[in-house]
Amino acid sequence: MEKPRQTWAGLCNISFGFFGIQIGFALQNANMSRVFQSLGSSLDDLPALWVAAPLTGLLIQPIVGHLSDRTWLGRLGRRRPYFLAGALLAALSLVLMPQSGTLLMAALLLWTLDASLNISMEPFRAFVGDMLGPDQHTAGYGVQTAFIGAGAVAGSLFPFLLDHLGVANQAPAGMIPDTVRYSFWAGGAALLAAVAWTVLTTREYSPAELAGFGAAHAGIAAPASGELAARSPLGGAVWIMAGALVAAAVEAWALEKEVYLLAALLAAYGAATIAAILLARAGRGQAMLASIVGDFAGMPRLMRRLAVVQFFSWSALFIMWINTTAVVAKRWFGTEDAASAAFQEAGNWVGVLFSVYNGVAAVAALLILPWLSRRLGQLLTHALCLLAGALGFAGFFLAATPEQLLLCEVGIGLAWASVLAMPYAILASNLPQAKLGIYMGLFNVFVVLPQLLVATVMGSIMRAFFPGEPVWTMAFAAGTLVLAALVTLALRAEQAQAA
To answer: For the chain, first and last CA: distance in Å?
Structure first.
């Protein structure tokens, strides 16, 4: 039995909530470094303060994916309860964030905000796969990406527009400007309204209906719990040993203390692997921990290869979000003083730059990506867009004025559109319906891991080789996108040979 085709209105209703979610992410991405520095953080401390966000996603997304696959609350459905709960918590966090009087309060609220946004966001990825047949996956994720871009434009432009309306864009040392304060409050209201629209205008298919659809689109077989039980716990011990070696390297080479987090994550994954294997051997393979670890270990080959592409792609994006304000402020506005008018002006210009790449992404997702994909195939389209993003980051070294950075954002916007749409469209047609939530959650682990790596390691690299020159972070961003494009092209060649 085939899923009914959705109209354009139906496609929009399915993903409209992502418009609000992305307003929240855009406000966070464009303004949190500014908030931290306004509250007294130094440039060197920013990566450590940003660690909370990706760490939260790493923990939340697989859990929410696992739970949403197993949830059914009648008329409220499977994924929509998570949309609504996350939106309520995220809106509250956005309201409270501008009231932060200390770095600790801002960091804790960032943690809460990111957790809440992840609770809402992860099921939206699976929701498109739930509601659409394979022939509409590209269109569905394209519409979702367009809403992501539109929401990000709105969120990024809030402070800039308020400044031009006469709202105070400066504040005394240790205070957050009114432009940022009012932007966060408006963003919270918009987020809640957008998610409520999707909840009220969509009806999810029941488990019985999905089972009927799944018979026609079974996809790749889910890993059996017996496969996990057959694995050796020594694999987990290797991960624990790797964590110990990283921790030892921090002391031996005087690395930044944030690298201890990377060591802890490696050791924690090793411990979780051992515990999951023991649970599976005890006949408890359906327990949450055993199920998540088993699905992670049993990811389909296509998903593994695309995960590597995502790892490199999101490394570049997180480098951009952390460092663009510092780069623009120092290179084109001549300041590192977060309390200065020039720094706040640079922060507003970064909001404009971010709105441009998100606007380009919104248009590209609806018009350019489908056209290219039909002619060149999904993988070649993705590789070309990633290379366009690499050129955009390289342009930071060539731009003579901040206005010239707008051209750089066009290339970055093409890459952003493809990163948000193409991998998910490919996966949704090749994953089992019953495990769509957990696999989408696990796939997003490879969005989070590079963010943690950047936050823990990038600071050490910059202080060792490029002290006081944050623009070199853009070179690293360009390089990682080139690597992502090369892996994509290798996957395309592999599939061509197999055919």
So the answer is: 28
